[in-house]
Amino acid sequence: MNKVKKRQIIINADDFGKSLERNRAIDYSFKNNLIDSASLIVTGKHLEDALKYIKAGEYFDKIHLHFNIRTNLLEEDSCDKPISTAMQKSSTFCNNGCFVNGIKYKFYDIRKWKIIYEELIAQYEKFIEVTEGKANYKQIEFHMWTNLSLPASIALNLFTRKYKIEYVRYYHIGIKNSLRTLICRLLSWNPKVKYTPATNIDYYLSKREKLRKYEIIELYCHPNYRDGVFLDDSPSYLGHKRRPMNEHMSLLGRM
């Protein structure tokens, strides 16, 4: 008789530090036990505001790094800026002092790996500094489906080995396994790292039975306040329906 594996479901709030409204929504989510963890962006102008909530709520042990090499498509009041000198000077990644929207470099331009590697180290060291050595430093969020490239894969591999990272959230369960995806996974592979699969809440709810093969699944959400409404503001381009955060949590049995 086959034993049914018990899955561990982790609900993670993305983009802590992205905007004032998002920071407030993530703080509320922590206080009401709607989320298990959050990933902190250290390149945005609202970092200090996020840190105030983390310190006041003592969320340090529930925070890990959200590595960032591009601005995302969430239109919010944030100008994410590279930390390393090399990336600041690179027109591939930076424009007018901020990250570009999207990645412009070619897939085969492996020469960019060192720029990404140095930026990852700079963000990681800043993360340790601002979280006062109290956060989760063995896990990072890499967003491989947006950072997908040969140089980024090489940089990630070297970084996880240097800092002995144990968990990386970097691929979406629903992403197609193209040749490009498989090559990048191979280049970034570190046998000592557990690459945690992730998906949005809608996808999980619709495919719950088919996802039993995964022992751990991270469900990402984007708590936010828009026009006074507390909602899960995950981007629609990820196949996610924007709806009130409490509604999503109710469907997951968290309310």
Structure report:
This protein is α/β, with parallel strands linked by helices. The chain has one domain: Glycoside hydrolase/deacetylase (TIM Barrel, Alpha-Beta Barrel), CATH 3.20.20. The protein is 33% helix and 21% strand. It has nine helices and twelve strands. The longest helix has 18 residues. The protein is globular and about 50 Å long. The protein starts with 7 loop residues before the first strand and ends with a helix.
List keywords for this structure.
3-stranded antiparallel β-sheet; 21% strand; 255 residues; alpha/beta
Describe the largest sheet: 7 strands, parallel, barrel
- C-alpha termini separation: 34 Å
CATH class: Alpha Beta
Annotated CATH architecture: Alpha-Beta Barrel
Biggest β-sheet: strands ordered side by side in the sheet: 1-2-3-6-7-8-9
Number of strands: 12
- Helix content percent band: 25-40%
Mean of pLDDT: 86
Counting structural domains, the number is 1
User: How big a fraction of the residues is strand?
Assistant: 15-25%
State the fourth-level CATH superfamily: Glycoside hydrolase/deacetylase
**Can you tell me the overall shape?**
globular
